[in-house]
Amino acid sequence: MEQQLDFLKQYKELYQPKTTPAIIDVPEMTFFAVDGRGNPNEPDGEYGKAVGLLYALSYTIKMSDKGKTALPGFVPFRVAPLEGFWQMAGGVPGVDYQNKDAFEWTSVIRQLDFVDESAFAWACEQVRKKKGSDTSRARLLRFREGLCVQMMHIGPYDAEPASVTRMDAFLAEHGYRNDLGHRRHHEIYLSDPSRTAPERLKTILRHPIVKG
């Protein structure tokens, strides 16, 4: 059986945090990204279409070695989990779970570093040809998140504020504060909400921080 790089196993410090807060320095990484706004739960809404596009592009890269195209530096891999960067309309930091229509978000899926502008352009072309999808909203993003606090949140998305409160208390104890005015609330989704009970959902919460 072909050995595949598994992001969750290869980078445990990034994708397998404990249910207690910890500080981590997040390195530069490559992503496919789509920006948007509005309620992520809206049926057939902008968010769902963005997620579908990200997965289509990611699986096109993953399956590229099965066809005639050889992407330079290709490494077999499992598609990484969906992630999201969130803030409120107008750049207001943090998230208000009672006002989801005002969310501004960037949805991303991590890629390996062999995925460059050329590979991204090829994937977009393939998705347009095979699915008739508009790929103009997608972009290739290289981004270093830097110093952050993170923890595993287990439970409904709307219950995340309790975990955020724990992270903020941890930061205060250790001489840090969140930097959400300059960077964004970050979530990494390890569970499929369509197949997982809300109380069992696993979501990594990550906030940028600075010395207090």
Chart the SSEs and their pairings.
Elements: H1 7-10, H2 12-15, E1 22-37, H3 46-62, E2 82-88, E3 103-111, H4 117-131, E4 138-154, H5 160-173, E5 176-178, E6 185-189, E7 202-211
Antiparallel strand pairs: 1-3, 1-4, 2-3, 2-6, 4-7, 5-7, 6-7
Helix pairs in contact: 3-4
Give a verbal description of the structure.
This protein has about 210 residues and is of the alpha+beta class. It has a single domain, classed as Multidrug-efflux Transporter 1 Regulator Bmrr, Chain A (Alpha-Beta Barrel), CATH 3.20.80. About 25% of the residues lie in helices and about 30% in strands. It has five helices and seven strands; from the N terminus they run ααβαββαβαβββ. It has helices at about 5-10, 10-15, 45-60, 115-130, 160-175, and strands at about 20-35, 80-90, 105-110, 140-155, 175-180, 185-190, 200-210. Strands 1-3-2-6-7-4 form a six-stranded antiparallel β-barrel. Helix 3 packs across helix 4 (about 115-130). The protein starts with 6 loop residues before the first helix and ends with a strand.
